[in-house]
């Protein structure tokens, strides 16, 4: 088609429509990016406020804050090849001799264990951290919930106190045997 045969008014109308469409699309995309940035900023502020409330709640309930934004890495294998996975938890806390990873959630769905992303995150924490358990902290309703996963016996997430207790008992028995041997020799 030869554009020289078209009336100039039609060409101007088509060009104006194309320009208007381009302008509307540009404005729509700019508004969408600004809205996403604002939403992300709001979520970060809500999360930071939730973490502050959660820390105060944990302290009120007798937990000691061992660390904030605690990072670990653990290894997995993919087709026999080792891969290191990095992970960061909101809090590492202690209550008496027991240590926990505490994950703070805000909003309507995130603090629920039936939310798949939350459940998977807590399970990964249980496997990756050398702790006795995981806590799900709902900062808005001021609830701290202990989450127990049905891990197989001997799993990496088994309590480290069992192994420590075995070593302590072995040391005590070794000490008693050495003391008895020294006593009978002297």
From TrEMBL:
Positions of transmembrane segments = 165-182
What's the superkingdom here? Bacteria
Q: Which UniProt keywords apply?
A: Membrane, Transmembrane, Transmembrane helix
Enumerate the Gene3D superfamilies for this protein: 3.90.320.10
Provide the protein name.
PD-(D/E)XK endonuclease-like domain-containing protein
The species is Sorangium cellulosum (strain So ce56) (Polyangium cellulosum (strain So ce56))
